[in-house]
Amino acid sequence: MEVDQFASEWTYTxxxxxxxxxxxxxxxxxxxxxxxxxxxxxxVEMRVERLRRDTVRIEEERDSLLSTLDSVRHSELLMEVxxxxxxxxxxxxxxxxxxxxTVEVAVRTDRDPQQEEALHQExxxxxxxxxxxxxxxxxxxxxxAASDKNFESAILGxxxxxxxxxxxxxxxxxxxxxxxxxxx
Length: 184
What we know:
Layout: E1 2-4, E2 21-23, H1 33-73, H2 83-100, H3 113-121, H4 124-137, H5 149-166
Antiparallel strand pairs: 1-2
Helix pairs in contact: 1-2
């Protein structure tokens, strides 16, 4: 059994589109069958991860396009065009929106029961509030009531250590050390 690196009958012409095949003949190859199968599975796993990354990227692009369409539909520039042009633009935007809504992209993350429980322990409001306390800890004028003091202490400590070691800080990019001519 030999692992043929790529299938030639795969018709998609995108980058890396050829799939790994398994050649069952024993005439070729010196690898053990298990090693050959593991090699194929490794290749498939890499392709699955690439597919997931690409899908997430496409999902983000779709969301960006929908946001742009929403901005166009609510733009102040519409106030500056005639009613006839406004209707044309609105119909055009609606047509594009309808087409965009036909695209469904999803990457699902499988979780075990413990992960599901942890995920649902905080609702969206409390997660947002927690993130806001972290953001407030990073501002120069935080709302004292809504700032995570432990996080703020960690940030300030890291900033002090960085300044002591490099002369810069987290909030300022470190400058490269100046070189002086030899003998000075």
